[in-house]
Amino acid sequence: DRMQHDGWLETMLHHRFPGHQLSFRNLGFPGDELKTRPRSANFGDANQWLTKVHADVVFCFFGYNEALRGPDAVDSFKNDLAGVIDGMKGQKYNGESAPRLVFFSPIAHEDLDDPNLPGGSENNYRLAMYTEAIREVADGNDVTFVDIFQPTQRLYGQMEEPLTINGIHFTSTGNRRL
């Protein structure tokens, strides 16, 4: 959802692939999870929207909210993720072929040394588990996986100013640096 505030990802991909006619549709909403996507009545589900936009490639960013459930829910998350992948692979959003799926890990929690915000170590412990769960399920289902958890942990340590507004949501600079 936060990527809707900045166009860095789209800009970088357009720059990298200038000969392609790329178009992006960010369908993320705050609070989205694999099995729960809060929307207004009659909004439609993810498959309807991906079909409406004729998606060829789908970038999926899940796992952050789910990680808040902790270690006991990892297996359930993996089962849900496998089900979502199977369901998406069975679709032809573009009318011709199954979509290429790219699943991203959650970002790491940035410790802002703010007494009003959690430090992030407990959250990062959970996020690391869910990152590994996404990697395992993606690898087992021949789906591209991109780990942004580890790189963001390293990036936080290299920066002089915060890259998030609250430890978990990127600033424009954070999105650009990622």
DSSP strand tally = 3
Poorly predicted regions? none
Proportion of residues in β-strands: 5-15%
Q: State the helical fraction.
A: 40-55%
Query: How many helical stretches?
Result: 7
Give a quick precis of the structure.
The protein is mainly alpha-helical and 178 residues long. It is built from seven helices and three strands.
Question: What structural keywords apply?
Answer:
40% helix, mainly alpha, 3 strands, globular, three-stranded parallel β-sheet, 7 helices, 178 residues
SSE inventory with pairings:
Blueprint: H1 8-16, H2 46-52, E1 57-61, H3 64-67, H4 74-89, E2 100-104, H5 121-140, E3 144-146, H6 149-158, H7 172-177
Helix pairs in contact: 4-5
Polypeptide structure, described:
Helix content is 40%, strand content 7%. The radius of gyration is 17 Å and the shape is globular.
